Fold:
Amino acid sequence: MEPIAAAVRLQEVTVLSEPAVRGDFDALYAAQFAPMVRLACVTTGSVPAAEDVVQEVFLALLHRPDVREPTAWLRRAVVSRCTSWVRRRRLERRHAGQPEPEPLVPLGPDAIAVRAGLARLRPRHRAAIFLRYYLDLSEADIADALNCRPGTVKSLLHRAHSALREHLDDH
Structure:
């Protein structure tokens, strides 16, 4: 590593230890932990897994002092890591020959149908639906969270609505 690069890296580490930055991080953590866990839980279907993913993302953010919009960065990172988590679990279950797990909370027939429809969506579609209707984000904010264009968000939401409508019409 070049000496100049080492000096820049040392400055970044020094910046992280400053009280103002640490206070900003603590405030961000307090404000965003619960919403990010809800986002992760919708995608993963597991509260413990969601908490683990969000903790990992916050830890990664702590080592990224160059992030200018931390809330948007958190959303994008949580969605990305949750998508990877879901893919890994499906692959593990497929190789082990295990069926998809059932929800633990008894639900009414409408809630069961909606939850089943959401479970059939791809993780990216499910995340788009959650960001739009639960967090009430604009298409531009969803595009930022999913790291895509606003036109792609419209397409994701349209396809998710179509899949949900089709599933609910069958039930």
Q: What stands out?
A: Residues 70-96 form the longest helix (27 residues).
